[in-house]
Known about the structure:
By secondary structure, this protein is of the alpha/beta class. It is built from eleven helices and nine strands.
Amino acid sequence: MNVRRRLIPAAALTGVTALTLAATSACSSAGAAAGNTGKFDVVASFYPMAFLAEQIGGNYVHVTSLTQPGQEPHDLEISAKQTAQLQESDAVLYLKNLQPSVDDAVAQSEVRTKIDAASLTTLEEHGNEVGGHAAARDTTKGEESGGKDPHIWLDPVRYAEVAKGVGKAFEKADPKHADTYRKNTDALVKKLDDLNTQFAQGLKNTRSKVFITTHAAFGYLAERYGLTEEAINGLDPESEPSAARVRDLEKMAQADGVTTVFYETLVSDKTAQTIAKDANLRTDVLDPIEGITPKSRGTDYFSVQEANLKALQTALGTK
């Protein structure tokens, strides 16, 4: 585990978590137990999973997120308190192989309904160079999912596939409210379809198709919309790039008309700033939406994705 990526020391996080589980929305009351709330109690591993559960479950679910707002989810170490609350829940929604401590807790738990988002869509291998024809050439193995890129939620189409699977799981586990879950799932999928259309149309005619990010979180998005993501650090947002990699990025930026180096909100922008300065490029935020914080350019998945689209249009140059 890369300890540099942890934003909150493990001891401090355990102490905070033992006191309260942060709410991710109005459906998730702070400090409430994960079980015995009188609703369908769902424990979600991190924000993209919690958002699905809330949107699909509506008023009939109580959602507890294991990852605190502002915490880098890959490095989560869940506490004994959270493990106990997981045991008391009706369902758990997680993304297998993204958070090892969650995987272990889920495997050992007796939760009746275990929903693995990774099993509801297809995963691919992504590394430093992703999108267009680059993905076929890439031989870099990712650090998560046994080489598979876990960032499926950044592709609205794959996220919609996951939403459909979650909706069906909720219907089966809580049949009394199946009609509502089905209706809410359909509404969410429609919004994701509309978002896909926005991205497809908004990125169809751009002067450049190449963008640089601090780590390869946007491989699925790049492939979906015919772009190429050049990542400084592969799937690890805080590993140090080699001098050769930096030189290659600078040459590529000049050749492909790249204007911007993107960084994200939950990790340091130091490397992005350094490369941007050396190559005379701008910097901007492209948010992988692993959590919503005051620094986020939006209040939920959709508003942040719309901000991401605008950032990409500006960087790539819309015709």
